[in-house]
What we know:
Elements: H1 2-21, H2 23-59, E1 65-69, H3 92-101, E2 105-120, E3 123-133, H4 137-140, E4 145-148, H5 153-157, E5 162-165, H6 167-174, E6 184-186, E7 192-199, E8 215-219, H7 220-224, E9 235-240, H8 246-260, E10 272-275, H9 276-319, H10 321-329, H11 334-365, H12 367-371, H13 379-405, H14 409-414
Parallel strand pairs: 3-8, 5-7
Antiparallel strand pairs: 1-9, 1-10, 2-3, 2-9, 4-7, 5-8, 6-7
Amino acid sequence: MRRVLEILGSSLNLTWQEFKSHKIRTLLSLTGVAFGIFCIISVLATVDSLEYQVQKDIKALGTNTVYIDKWVYAGGPDYPWWRYVKRPSPSYEEMQLLKQKVPAASNVAFNINTNSYVGFENDVINSVNYYGITDEFVNIQPVDIELGRYLQPADYDFAANVIVMGYTIAETLFGKPEKAVGQTVVLKQGKRALVVGLIKKQGKSFVGGWEYDNSILMPLGFMKEMVREKTSNPIIMVQGKESVPMEQLRDELTGAMRSIRKLRPTQEDDFALNDIDAFSSFASEIFGGINKGGWSIAILSLIVGMFGVANIMFVTVRERTSQIGLKKAIGAKRSVILTEFLLESAFLCIMGGLLGLIIVFLLTLASKAIFGFAVFIAPGILVLAISICIIVGVLAGIIPASIAAKMDPVVAIRSK
């Protein structure tokens, strides 16, 4: 153990002496390694952070949940919208029947939405999301209340003219969001509503989502006084029980919906089951592709850096030829010489990696302003980066180190 520590200390000291003696040469050679590590850490950290945020937003849409709509949410350039436009929209009555026909469901909710204004005294905010919901909506899509209360069963039963307001709307209308609770606001068609609750600030969503900050929630019955159900993007939300696989839930929903709509066996489905968990898997595939692109750039940079480090090591071996001969003359084994140069090469790459890490760290400090989300560097990424530096260092130094280890001590001592 003591011998190993001596070799490590000697290699580290020689690396530092090499850096001090040839700062410009060493820095230029380490640029490739630094850029490669920068690419690896920055891409992995950014993609991991973005994927975490996106997956968090997707999970906010409801875990183990299926959205029943006439539209398929897959989208894409070849989206066959003409196949879906004439489909019947989901209805409140269908939602009630599904509660009876689907044992695998733990919560079933109905939702309609539109976009209009909210006014208070002389101030008006346009482009506000209206959501008319049923009582089990909150079980599928949790809503955090900052102040006041959420909608209660009596509000749904009597179609009460009450709303829960988003943070940004309250802040814009009243200056201080907390002042919104207890105030009466004017909605679409001049309807008046009492603000009973303030939704906690959510922040921007990367997948659209519910965007609660710019939304108001109200009982479905009250919403129907302002809009028509069929023209307000009706959706049935079904959350499966924890023990029920998604495939079973989809099968039961398919059978129940076909039965409710009295479709013959030869008729195709006139509804879409949009699986939220499938969105999560699709997002993971996309981020996996982005990671591969980042790795390809990083590998190219590391290869360039590896040649730079190898060049340094060839020069170093030549400059220390007499020292190598002296060490071998007094009993140093080939393995010791080989290990010293390999460690020195690895340390050089680690220095380059640290340079790349410092650049990434500085960028993470400004990531919130640049990307709109905080970038974090996971410990696993740091371990991976250091491991890559060591591997690259060993590969870069293996040939020069082998040459040094095989030198004849007499010839090496006589060299100039």
